[in-house]
């Protein structure tokens, strides 16, 4: 898809869907393996450099994560399914288990970003952790409902449709157009993190800044933006304050 995207007409999009993934690329050069039962896609988008999103490209991964969650929770009856986003690019069951993730690569050519968005989430595999249809079965048992299981094809289509709407809103209104939706579904409200190291000072997560980085409040120091240190598997460990 990376070779094809530069040959397409500007108004044409492209998506590749995999039933099983054996040579996928994860963050930091990791291999992203996925069996049958997952929703796996790579989507090509173009974003003008001189646009709200083009000036804040890190927000793309947040919009995609939110689109995956809303693809499920915007279906009538499915609003209570505990699918959430974890900054910057993970899909979670509550704040307990990871069900999927997002990886974004961007190439700037003249004044256009060509964005390759890889996203995958577990729809129908109960192992090794949990899947979306497990959450639906759990919800049915607890609430006495009869929600039907969902399919990977349906959720990929819904995710792309929701993402298109979120991008349009962001381009029109900027971060404030989407952040209230994002905060509704994220796992971090009121949570604490350590800065600099495992023994570093405690800080409270308060939100996302205008560039898409995490904002924390360290007692006595006000609100600051932090970045991952790049070495930890968990993006919320060992956060650093850029100088």
From TrEMBL:
<dbReference type="Pfam" id="PF03099">
    <property type="entry name" value="BPL_LplA_LipB"/>
</dbReference>
<dbReference type="InterPro" id="IPR004408">
    <property type="entry name" value="Biotin_CoA_COase_ligase"/>
</dbReference>
<dbReference type="GO" id="GO:0004077">
    <property type="term" value="F:biotin--[biotin carboxyl-carrier protein] ligase activity"/>
</dbReference>
<dbReference type="InterPro" id="IPR045864">
    <property type="entry name" value="aa-tRNA-synth_II/BPL/LPL"/>
</dbReference>
<dbReference type="InterPro" id="IPR004143">
    <property type="entry name" value="BPL_LPL_catalytic"/>
</dbReference>
<dbReference type="InterPro" id="IPR003142">
    <property type="entry name" value="BPL_C"/>
</dbReference>
<feature type="domain" description="BPL/LPL catalytic">
    <location>
        <begin position="1"/>
        <end position="171"/>
    </location>
</feature>
<comment type="similarity">
    <text>Belongs to the biotin--protein ligase family.</text>
</comment>
<dbReference type="Pfam" id="PF02237">
    <property type="entry name" value="BPL_C"/>
</dbReference>
<dbReference type="GO" id="GO:0005737">
    <property type="term" value="C:cytoplasm"/>
</dbReference>
<protein>
    <submittedName>
        <fullName>BPL1 ligase</fullName>
    </submittedName>
</protein>
<keyword id="KW-0436">Ligase</keyword>
